[in-house]
# Entry
Amino acid sequence: MTTRHFIIATAGHVDHGKSALVKALTGTDPDRLPEEKKRQITIDLGFAALNLTMPNGDKIHVGIVDVPGHEDFVRNMIAGVGSIDLALFAVAADDGWMPQSEEHLQILNYLGVQRAVIALTKSDLGRIDVVTNQIRERLSDTVFAESPIVPTSVRTGTGIENLASTIGSQLARTEPQRDIRKPRLFIDRVFTLRGLGTVVTGTLTGGALHRGQQIIVYPTNLETRIRSIQSHGNELEIAQPGMRTAITLPDLRVDQVKRGEVVTLPGQGAPSSTLIVRVQKPSRLNANNAVAHPLKNGSSIYVHHGASRVSARIKFGKTGSLQTGPERTAHLKLASSIFAFTGDRFVIRDSSERHTIAGGIVLDPDGGKESLASTVALDNVDSLLRATLARHGFARRETLLSKSRFSADEISDALKNLEKNGGIVLCQHIAADREFWEKLRAQAIGLIDAAHRENPERGGLDLGELRSALRIQEPAVFESLAADLCEDEFVRNGSVIARKSHRPTLPLHVQPMEKRIRELLTAQPFDPPSRKTIESDSQARQVVRFLIENEEITELAVDVVLLRESFERMKSQVAEFISKKGPATVSELRQALGSSRRIMVPLLERLDRDGVTRRVGDKRTLCRTRNL
Ligand SMILES: Nc1nc2c(ncn2[C@@H]2O[C@H](COP(=O)(O)OP(=O)(O)OP(=O)(O)O)[C@@H](O)[C@H]2O)c(=O)[nH]1
Ligand SMILES: [Mg+2]
# Structure
């Protein structure tokens, strides 16, 4: 029987008995700092483990993160509750619902926590019925409306076992975190251990980490190898998603890594600092409270994502602000990069760090100008793919939604299905919105046909010209488009693309010019006029280019052209002369052929390149290997 792993975190107002509860459940006092002991208050995150055996024998391992309740340490609290499976929410019987009960509830909601167990702590101090009603009322319009409430007292021991079994039965119904092979360890602690070096800990999500694996730390881009892995003191080969995980990174100094950074595998996309998001201030916020004030366009805020906190500026397009109630799309410009995925949730606090003012979800971690359609369902891979392609027109398959909560296989299967249904086009490395692709194809075909009409003497349209006319930045997209066109009616010849049916011809009105040029080149076939002389106007240039493309003219140098048949004749006369008379100089050959130095030098260089002749000193010999 395998053990399932889950993470829970405490939540609730200061002094409501969260740490005492963790100690009663696990035997571990999560308050480990001397300052915490002295002040009897939790300041930073504490950790403990709980092993549960269910009535049917199933085993559940729970990593517990104990958070501070004091309003000064909300920042630390948020770092502890990202990616948890369940909240252990404490409300003290002698105090009832208090400001940080409300604030922590908001934070859990913003981060999408779906399950909670409510511990009605200090039940020995009375008022169980009254406080139970109060809690029910406060939770009535939230996802925790039906969460179990368990009265507990660490003084008398009442309810502790019940609490453990309630946590167990809630987790038994919880799906373990998905393994999408995109591990992210949000670092919440960094320290050194003698003999081990730098250790970082965090909650692992999205995929497993293996001992010996090469990892990268974002946003610093430091790459290193995992020396060893522990979870709650046990050495492991592999840490699974949903585990509290400690990894040793002996090649990094302790001051090179800090809370908020992310350990992941290289090659999964990069961190970014401009994000498109959807944000909301819930309507339950009390209108008299500063927290409910509209969030103005351009405000400076703090964004809490994973275990990180980054200052940012929020923009809602040109105008507007975020009021309580409906969601809005916004752009975030962060002061430093984060490694966020589409679908990740985050919390927004004000710049004074006194209030939690909104929550949000990432639509596009790599910014951009436009936003995804507001109808997109972020938890549905098909919907997300269609919306992303509709927005960008196309994307490289390899990187499409790489920073999302879907595995590469899920994305690839969904793409194939969408292609079958006709909504998208897959071509080589590109996935494209069908409408976008059809338009692009039609535009390209229009340009090629126009080129055939305007320059019928040319082999086709230059691919570089086509690409810049279509304004395609990404080479892979252009490659895919060209390949798509060449699937049926088009063909690529060197650097041009043409209809398969296209046969280059000179337009009628330039045919007299063709005749004139042929005459010029035949009059003195081995010593014709320079190209400059021949190309007297644009029509002449058009003809020369046509004849070169059709291999009727041979281009020996920038200014030297010959009829091809003259070139062939010169070649065999050179060969004949040398084979009869032995190695010869340029001058000897020039005289023998009745040519000029202007023609002979580039001709012989060309014959050298073609492997017909070889230069030895100032003479040419024949290449023996060449069979003339
Ligand atoms: N009578 C009584 N006192 C309790 C109980 N649980 C905790 N306390 C006391 O309440 C005080 C605060 O308990 P903690 O567990 O430190 O509270 P906390 O919620 O962790 O506080 P922060 O982490 O600072 O927010 C301590 O003095 C505890 O002894 C209980 O069940 N009954
Ligand atoms: Mg505490």
Q: What stands out?
A: The two ends are 80 Å apart (CA to CA). The pocket of guanosine-5'-triphosphate (ligand 1) is lined by residues 14-20, 40-42, 68-70, 90, 121-122, 124-125, 153-155 (CB under 6 Å).
